[in-house]
Specification:
Blueprint (H helix, E strand, L loop, with lengths): L13 H20 L5 H16 L15 E4 L5 H10 L3 E3 L5 E5 L3 H5 L29 H20 L11 E5 L1 H5 L1 H13 L4 E7 L16 H8 L2 E5 L5 H13 L5 E6 L22 H10 L14 H30 L1 H11 L17 E6 H15 L3 E5 L3 H4 L10 E2 L8 E3 L4 H13 L3 E7 L3 H14 L4 E5 L17 H6 L5 E3 L4 H11 L7 E4 L4 E4 L16 E4 L8 E5 L4 H13 L4 E5 L3 H5 L3 H7 L7 E4 L8 H4 L4 E3 L10 H8 L3 H11 L3
Parallel strand pairs: 1-4, 4-5, 5-7, 6-7, 9-11, 9-12, 10-11, 12-13, 13-15, 14-15, 18-19, 18-20, 20-21
Antiparallel strand pairs: 2-3, 8-16, 17-19
Helix pairs in contact: 1-2, 1-3, 1-11, 2-3, 2-9, 5-7, 5-15, 7-15, 11-12, 13-18, 15-16, 19-24
Bound molecules: thiamine diphosphate and magnesium ion.
C-alpha cells in the first residue's frame, strides 16, 4: 500500500524544527527499541506541539502545579509523542515526596532506553513512573474517560475554592485520542456524561487518520463522530490539515472561547506523515519504520539522514520561550495569589496542599459510629452508608457517586451541605453517573488523580463493567474507593444475572488492589478506618444487601483486628484449637454459630474473620502463625463465592464451602438452602475435617 511521496513544508521555521524533532526522536526511539508505534507521533507532532507551545497553561519547572492544564495522551500507543514533548519542553522530575528535582522527567538517555527494563519510558505511559504523565494510558478509551473525571475535579475545585478576587482554579483538560478511543465504550459513556454535565473545561482532540491497527478504519468504523458528539451536547470543530498550525490555533482558540460545553476537535491527519512508503498506512503502526525508511523520512523532513536522537540548536530554547515562559509567569502569579489566599483562608489553603499529597485532614475519623450487639443486625451496605457519610463530612474533598444505584448502594451523602454535582452547579459532593459503570470507573480515576478522594459504587456483579478502570487504578497506585453492594447469592430474588461468584477471586488476584469484605457493622467501621489512610492503591469494598447480625464484641474479639486483614474472633479455651473456621462477610455469622455448637459439644474450634487477605499477607510471619497455626490442619472456609484461592489458607486437609455454579433467583432462605449455606453445614464440615 504505497502512498504517493508527500511534499512537506521544509521551511526551517523554529516551529517546524521543533515539530520535526518530536517526530525524529520518536522515530529513532522506536527504531532503537525495535518496537513501538512511530506513525501516530509523526502524524500528531504539530497538533501536540502547537497545543503545548501556544495554549497549554503548564509550567515545566513545576509539573505538579495544582492549577496546571492537564494533557492526556489517550492514544497511549503513541507514547513517544508524549515522551519527546516532555523532554523538549524541559519538564522536570518530581520525586515521591512531591519535590521538584534538577533532573528532567524524561532525559534524552531515557528516550534512548524506550521500552527497556526499568526505564521511565515504558511502552505505554505510566503515571506512577514518569512525571508529566498525568494518567496511565494504553487500554484505549480509558484516557479520555479519565479526562472527564479531571474536568469534573476542575469544576468542583473552582466551585469550592475560588473566592472573589481569587480565581485559584480554572484549569483546562486536553485529551488526544484516536479512532480506537472513539470506538471504545467507556469513551462513549464518558463523553455522554461530559456533555450532560456541560464540562466546558474539557477538550478532546480526535486524530482522524482513517487508520487503525488492522487496516483502514473504514473496514470497521464509518459513523459520523461529529454528529454523534453534537448529539452528546458537545461543541464540535474540525481541522482539515494536521500540519496547518494556523488552523490548529483557531481550533484551540475556539475551545477556549466556548465554555458552555466540552469541545471535540476533529483533526484530519496522516499516520506516518512523511514516510514515502508507509504514510497513511497501518504499516506505520505497531512496528519500527525500518532503517532504510527512516533515512528516507529524515531526508523528507530536511533532516541529516544519519543523525540520531538529534535535537537541533534552538529547539529547547524555543520551547522554553513558549510553554516554559508562559507557564512560569502564570505559575508565579498563581503562587503569589495563593499565598494571599492562604492568609485569608488558611483552612482552605491547607486543604489544597493536603489534597495534592493525598493526605487526610486532621480528625478524618472522628465521630465514627460503634454498633451495639444485635442478633437481627443490619446489612453491611447500611452500616457502610452511615460510615461513608461520617467520613465524607470529615473529609471535605471526598466526592463520588453510583451508577444509578445510590439508593441501593447507600452511597448518597445526606449530611447538610453535601449537595449534588449537577450541570452548572458544581460544588456538590454527590455525582450522578447514570447507568455508566465503565465511564464512572474511569472518571473516578481522573477525579482521584486530581487530588480528590473519589468513590464509585454499583452492584458487585457490575464491577465487571468497570474492571478495566479498577485495574488501572491499581496500576497507577491511586486511592480510589470502589464500593459494591449486593455482594453474593445472598441478594436473593434478582437471581444469577446479578449474583457475583468469581469477582472476589478476580479482585484478590489483582496486584495492588485491597479487597475488603467485612462481616458485621463494626467490621465495616474498621474496614473504612483501615483503608482510608492507604493512599498507594485502590480498595474494593464489598457489602451485603441482606441484614447480618452485629456481633457482641464483649463476647468476641474487637473488630479492630480488621486492620490486620484477618484476626481471631473467637477461640478455644487456652488458645489451642483443633479446628479453624474461616469466613468473610455474611458467612461470618455461620462460622460463629458453628463455633458455639461445636463448643457445646466439647469440640475446640477457632473462628478467624478474614475480611482482607491482602492486609493479612502484609503481616509478619509471627502474626500469621498466631492466627493460623501451622500445627492445626483441620480447617474450614466458608464464602458464598468461587473457592479459588482459599486453598492457600485451608490447606490440603481442609474443606472449602463455596459456590461452584451460578446462583439462582429465589427468596434468600431458599437460595441458601439450595446451595447449602448455614451453621449446620459448617458444623458437619468441621467434624469431617476432624475425622469425627
Ligand atoms: C482496549 C484496547 N484494545 C486494543 C488495543 C490495541 N491497540 C493499540 S493501538 C490500536 C489501534 C488504534 O487505532 P487508532 O486509535 O486509530 O490509532 P492509530 O492507529 O491511528 O494511531 C489498537 C487496536 C488497545 N491498546 N486497547
Ligand atoms: Mg487511527
Amino acid at each position: 500500500m504505497n502512498a504517493p511521496t508527500p511534499t512537506l513544508d521544509k521551511r526551517p521555521t523554529l516551529d517546524q524544527l521543533c515539530i520535526n524533532t518530536i517526530r525524529t526522536l520518536s522515530i529513532d526511539a522506536v527504531q532503537k527499541a525495535n518496537s513501538g508505534h512511530p506513525g501516530a507521533p509523526m502524524g500528531l507532532a504539530p497538533v501536540v506541539f502547537s497545543l503545548w507551545q501556544y495554549f497549554l497553561n503548564y509550567d515545566p519547572a513545576d509539573p505538579h502545579w495544582p492549577n496546571r492544564d492537564r494533557f492526556v495522551l489517550s492514544a497511549g500507543h503513541a507514547s513517544m509523542l508524549l515522551y519527546s514533548t516532555l523532554h523538549l519542553a524541559g519538564v522536570k522530575a518530581v520525586n515521591a515526596k512531591g519535590e521538584v528535582q534538577k533532573e528532567l522527567a524524561v532525559s534524552l538517555d531515557q528516550i534512548k532506553r524506550f521500552r527497556q527494563l526499568d526505564s521511565l519510558t515504558p511502552g505505554h505511559p505510566e503515571s506512577h513512573l514518569t512525571t508529566g504523565v498525568e494518567t496511565t494510558t494504553g487500554p484505549l478509551g480509558q484516557g479520555v474517560a479519565n479526562s472527564v473525571g479531571m474536568a469534573i475535579a476542575g469544576k468542583w475545585l473552582a466551585s469550592n475554592f475560588n473566592k472573589p478576587g481569587f480565581d485559584l482554579f480554572g484549569f483546562r483538560v486536553y485529551a488526544v485520542c484516536g479512532d480506537g478511543d472513539m470506538m471504545e465504550g467507556p469513551a462513549a459513556e464518558a463523553a455522554s456524561l461530559a456533555g450532560h454535565l456541560q464540562l466546558g473545561n474539557l477538550c478532546w482532540i480526535y486524530d482522524h487518520n482513517h487508520v487503525t491497527l488492522d487496516g483502514p478504519a473504514s473496514w470497521s468504523f464509518s459513523e459520523d463522530a461529529m454528529t454523534r458528539f453534537i448529539g452528546y451536547g458537545w461543541n464540535v470543530t474540525r481541522v482539515a490539515d494536521a500540519n496547518d498550525l494556523q488552523q490548529l490555533s483557531r481550533a484551540y482558540k475556539y475551545f477556549q472561547e466556548h465554555n458552555d460545553q466540552p469541545t471535540l476537535i476533529v483533526v484530519d491527519s496522516h499516520i506516518g506523515y512523511g514516510s514515502p512508503h508507509k504514510q497513511d498506512s497501518f504499516e506505520a503502526h505497531g512496528e519500527p519504520l525500518g532503517e532504510a525508511e527512516v533515512k528516507l523520512v529524515k531526508e523528507n523532513y530536511g533532516w541529516p539522514v544519519d543523525a540520531q536522537f538529534l535535537v537541533p540548536d534552538g529547539v529547547y530554547a524555543h520551547f522554553q520561550e513558549g510553554v516554559g515562559t508562559r507557564g512560569s509567569q502564570n505559575n508565579a502569579k498563581w503562587k503569589s495569589l495563593f499565598s494571599e489566599y492562604a492568609k485569608k483562608f488558611p483552612d482552605l489553603a491547607d486543604h489544597i496542599v493536603r489534597m495534592q499529597k493525598h493526605e487526610l485532614p486532621d480528625g478524618w475519623d472522628k465521630n465514627l459510629p460503634t454498633f451495639a450487639a444485635d442478633p437481627k443486625g443490619m446489612a453491611t451496605r447500611e452500616s457502610s452508608g452511615k460510615v461513608l457519610n461520617v467520613l465524607a463530612k470529615n473529609i471535605p474533598w471526598m466526592i463520588g457517586g453510583s451508577a444509578d444505584l445510590a439508593k441501593s448502594n447507600k452511597t448518597n451523602l445526606t449530611f447538610e451541605g453535601a449537595g449534588e454535582f449537577f450541570p452548572e452547579e458544581y460544588e456538590g459532593r454527590n455525582i450522578h453517573y447514570g447507568v455508566r459503570e465503565h465511564g464512572m470507573g474511569a472518571a473516578t480515576n481522573g477525579i482521584t488523580i486530581s487530588g480528590l478522594r473519589g468513590f464509585a459504587a454499583t452492584f458487585f456483579n457490575f464491577s465487571d463493567y468497570m474492571r478495566a478502570s479498577m485495574r488501572l487504578a491499581a496500576l497507577m497506585e491511586i486511592p480510589v474507593l470502589f464500593i459494591f453492594t449486593h455482594d453474593s447469592i445472598g441478594l436473593g430474588e434478582d437471581g444469577p444475572t446479578h449474583q457475583p461468584i468469581e469477582q472476589l477471586a478476580g479482585f484478590r488476584a489483582m496486584p495492588n488492589m485491597l479487597v475488603m469484605r467485612p462481616g458485621d457493622a463494626n467490621e465495616v467501621v474498621e474496614a473504612y478506618r483501615a483503608v482510608l489512610p492507604h493512599t498507594e492503591g485502590p480498595t474494593t469494598l464489598v457489602f451485603s444487601r441482606q441484614p447480618l447480625p452485629t456481633l457482641d464484641r464483649t463476647k468476641y474479639a474487637s473488630a479492630a483486628g480488621v486492620a490486620k486483614g484477618a484476626y481471631v474472633l473467637a477461640d478455644a479455651d487456652g488458645g489451642k484449637p483443633d479446628v479453624i473456621l474461616m469466613a468473610t462477610g455474611s458467612e461470618l455469622q455461620w462460622v460463629v454459630g458453628a463455633y458455639e455448637k461445636l463448643k457445646a459439644e466439647g469440640i475446640k474450634a477457632r473462628v478467624v474473620s478474614m475480611p482482607c487477605w491482602q492486609l493479612f499477607e502484609k503481616q509478619d510471619a509471627a502474626y500469621k502463625e498466631s492466627v493460623l497455626p501451622s500445627s492445626v490442619t483441620a480447617r474450614v472456609s466458608v464464602e458464598m463465592a468461587a473457592t479459588l484461592g482459599w486453598d492457600r489458607y485451608v490447606g490440603p486437609k481442609g474443606k472449602m464451602i463455596g459456590m461452584h455454579t451460578f446462583g439462582a433467583s429465589a427468596p434468600l432462605k431458599d437460595v441458601l438452602k439450595k446451595f447449602g449455606f448455614d451453621t449446620d453445614t459448617v458444623v458437619a464440615a468441621a467434624k469431617q475435617v476432624l475425622g469425627k
